[in-house]
Amino acid sequence: MQWDTKVLDSCESLNGGFPEPANIVGSVVVWLLGLYGLLGSQLNELPTFVLYASMYVWGSMSTAYHNTGKLQWRDASNIGAYVMIWYTMALVGERTLDLATVAGKVQYYSKAGLSILAFGGLAYTLSQQGVSGDAWDIRLDFAEVLGVVQFLILVMSLVSAWMLRTKISPSAVRYLSAGAVLIFVANIIWMTTEPECRESDGSLKKKFFGYTRMIWYMASALGLHYIAQCTIKMELVALDEECSFHASDSKYFGWLLYVFPLVKARASVKKSKSVELKPVEKPAGQV
Known about the structure:
The protein is an all-alpha fold and about 290 residues long. The chain is built from nine helices and two strands.
């Protein structure tokens, strides 16, 4: 199959062809969140860049695919999604182990196991992608692998929230839990609707499933954003830096930073204190 071949592999395209308006809206949300994380995140480090850059690739390539139906855009979006989910799973686990009270050898072998699982899984799934352009069935392989890894992220996030409940702020625990709930919702949507979209029968159910993938995009991206910001929070806490989720005093738009949080180091809160100079009182009689 050639890279410019059109592939009908979602309920929306099977029922209406291309472009797919609902899926385009969902994937635009993904790349906007990726761009938001790249430009707004506090920690300028490789893991943060990889997480949000892969989210941007996933969303932007998905937007191109749902607009044109061409195979190369679908495969490129799959690569972005794989990098994002495998790397998120490894990062949550490793940074949880860094903050949790875990024995040295247990921590070392646990982190090594996570790295092997994440990078081994990523290498395997990418090898199945077919760099020569030979497409494999997205509904059989991609859907199942994505569901399994999202489930691992769900479990990892809940375990992290429980293990670090006394070490990170309550807001971070809430965002980790909220991220896990969104991933759970996304996974249920994905695993119950994608297998149904092998072929179209014109039924109302299949037409409805054409719009559920948009919800999957949004829930997945927002849940992964919450979890990614919590990993930044973990790293800043491990570095003993004062940090918090950024808040806004805006009357009308302050809620946006609660829905789309960003962790910020509180630069004004430092242990060094300025010395206040007091005027020296001269003894009476001195000029």
